[in-house]
Structure formats: C-alpha cells, structure tokens
Amino acid sequence: MRFIVRLVLPLAFVWPAHGAPLPPEQVGKTALPEPQPSWFTMLGRDASYIFDAADGEMKGLISHSGFSPAIVSLPSRKEAYVVESYYSRGVTGTRSDVLTVVDLTDLSTKTEIEIPAKTAALSFRHHIGLLGDERHVVVFNMTPAQSVSIVDVVERRFVGEIAIPGCAIIMPTGERGFLTICGDGTLQLIRLDEKGLEAARVRSRPFFVVEEDPVFDRVVQTTRGWLLVSHEGLVREVSVDGDRIAVGEAWSMLDVADAKDPKDSKDSKDSKEEDPWRPGGAQPFTMHRGTTLLYSLMHKGKVDTQDENGTEIWVFDTERRRRVARLELPVEASHILSSQEPAPRLYVYDKDSKLHIYDGHRLRLLRTIEKPGVGARLLQTLTQYD
Q1: Neighbour-count burial for 137-176, b at 16+ CB within 10 Å, e otherwise
Q2: Per-residue confidence (pLDDT) for residue 26, from 0 to 100
Q3: Would you state the CATH architecture of domain 272-386?
Q4: pLDDT (tens digit, 9 = 90+) per residue, 44-98?
Q5: Using an 8 Å Cβ cutoff, are 56 and 42 in contact?
Q6: Which terminus, N or C, of the chain has the lesser number of Cβ atoms within 10 Å?
Q7: What span, in angstroms and rounded, lies between the C-alpha atoms of 114 and 276?
Q8: What torsion do the CA atoms of 225, 230, 236, 238 make, to the nearest 10 degrees?
Q9: In 3-state terms, what secondary structure has residue 330?
C-alpha cells in the first residue's frame, strides 16, 4: 500500500504544472467566418458537415432531419434553405414537412416555413431549387403523385402546389422558370409569375426513350443551361430561349476503344467480351463551369449498373466534346464534386467512407479527410447553384 501512495502523490503535485483547468463551455451562437470558395458540404445522416478543402478542417455543421434531400445556399442573403420531414414517433406517426431557413453567419435556424407533407425526402440535389429571382424555392413532391411546392423565402410563406405528373427534377432557368425531366422522353418548362403562381407551361420534343437509354436524374448546371447524361454515356446540353426548349445534339463519352475492349477479336476463340465502360455512382457527375470541364465516375458494367461505384474518373472538355484525362482510383468512389474556384479542386468520396481532395487539373491527391462524418449522401459547394 505504501508503494502505491508514493506513486500517486507525485502525480497529484505535478498535474497543475502541466495544464490549467479547462474553461467552462459557452453555450450559444458562434460566429462563422465568411464562407470561402474552397468550402463545401457533405450531407450525412442527420446533418450537413461544412469543410474547407484548403486545409481539410471542418468549419461547422448544419443540423437537420434525416429526411432532407439537399440544401440550397444564397450567399447574397447569407441564408441556406433545407427541406425537412419529421414524424411524431421518429419514423412513424404524424408527419410534418418544413422548409428551414438557416443563417449562414452562425448556422442557427432563422425560421421554419410549413409546407405540404409530400416532399420526396430522397438525397437528390435537384429535388429542391432556388429560382433566379432569389425569392421562390421549388420543392419536389412524390406521394406518389408528382408535384412541386412553391415557397416564398422573402415573405416566408408557402405559395402553392403545382402538379407535374410523370415528371421530376428541378432545373431552374431564367428569373422564374424551371425545367423538369419527364418519363415520355421530354422536358417540361414551367414559368411562374411574380406571386409564384403558374404562368406558362411548355413541353419539348421527345429526345430519349426510357426503355432504351434513359437519362440520369443527376443533372449538371452549365453557364448556358444544363447537361443531361444518359446511361450509355450520351451527353446533351439543354437550354431555354424564350418559351422554346433547346435540346443540343448528343455526343458520346465513349469512343470505340472505350465501348469495347480491343482484345476481343474474331481471331481469338478463347477471348471473352468484357463489359463496356459506363458512367455511374450515387453522385457521378460534376462540372467546373469556368473551364467547362465535366468530371464523371466510370466503371465497367452491364446494362442497369448506373448506380455502381466508379473505378476511374474521366475528364471531358465539353466545348471540344472529347476526353482530356482519366484517373484510376485506388478505391472505388460513389460521389464526386468540383469546386468553382478558378483552379478547381475535386472532392471524391470513396467506399471506405473517406473524403479525398484532388487538384482538379492535374488530378493529383492533395489531402484526405479520414473521418468526414456518418454516411455521406451528397456533396455540395456553398454557391447558389451547387
């Protein structure tokens, strides 16, 4: 016993010299630094984690319901908008849906706007969109009838619901318009008036066949409109000119060598045809609008493998419509996102739940965030459009 006392007493006397008592935790609002172009968010299970790609550090966290598709940021008002669904007994019981207004200066909740309890509540970036007037937020509903809820975030009120049967995805265009993708192979344009009510509706010509080669519901915004990519790797740019929906000519991500392995020849009886390259993943595409570079996760697979992780990243010059680089990944990845800095960074989330930050031009690994959070569902920047 005497031996034990001699060991413990010296430690008691030494402790104060090595560290002062911890100050009490201050509970309340914490000022957030001005968001930088290198900041991005990762939507996790019950929150969106904000990171700075420049140093890999987490800057803050936006808490929200686990039933949230995405966030929409509005830097000019230092606000973000989050769709949330809640159930009185966790995952059952009475449901209530709200559009939460988040203060980006301290990540606190400014207000909640009640909306119809119909939101799709899936992790799709374009199940929510902020229109060009910076006033109206459009939220996609599926109950299973498809519609959108219009919310006025200036007056903080629900405006109304617009039916969009057979259509989904919200692609803002112009001041008060948005496009949707429809199951008959067309696009639909809906324009709102100043009050947020439907003012016009236009349909495009059919340009794809769902049973043959559907387009991904992960769309990419450009400086002129939107890029739509099909499961077979066909790329089309769509835009709006007045009341006309323009669908550009399709070009392929794949050349002959990519679509089929050249080793598969008629001269070899033992040769076995390999699966072709295909785009795929939970978040397979991203674009750096300043350089018009399109990044895509790619894998070798059969038809209907559009959700499989990518084993490579391919980079395309969309102006010249050609591939300019490719990167073989050490670990399969499910999500990619480009920053919108002049020199882009590329964020890659892999199947081992690690976040990697690459130089977007040289495709060189810059750093890795080993434990970014629980269950990544979506990567976003803090710009108005991503």
Answers
A1: bbbbbeeeebbbbbbbbeeeebbeebebeebbbbbbbeeb
A2: 59
A3: 7 Propeller (2.130)
A4: 888 899 999 999 999 999 988 888 889 999 999 999 999 999 999 988 899 999 9
A5: no
A6: N
A7: 47
A8: -30
A9: strand
d(CA 112, CA 167): 27
| Bond from prior residue into 144 cis (ω within 30 degrees of 0) | yes
- The position carrying tokens 């890795």 is 368
d(C-alpha 39, C-alpha 185), whole Å? 36
Angle at 42 between CA 41 and CA 43, to 5 degrees: 115
- Chain-centroid distance of CA 147 in Å reads 21
Q: Kindly report, residue by residue over 223-267, the tens digit of the pLDDT.
A: 999 999 999 999 999 999 988 999 999 999 997 556 554 444 444
Q: Which residue has the higher pLDDT, 29 or 123?
A: 123
Question: Model pTM?
Answer: 0.88
**Tokens standing for residue 303:** 């038809």
Domain boundaries, the chain: 272-386
Q: Write the pLDDT tens digit of every residue in 129-182.
A: 999 999 999 999 998 999 999 999 999 999 999 999 999 999 999 999 999 999
- Which residues have CB under 8 Å from 45's CB, separation 6+? 66, 373, 374, 375, 377
Tell me the torsion sign for CA atoms 58, 59, 63, 69. negative
SS3 labels along 198-209: EEEEEECCCCCC
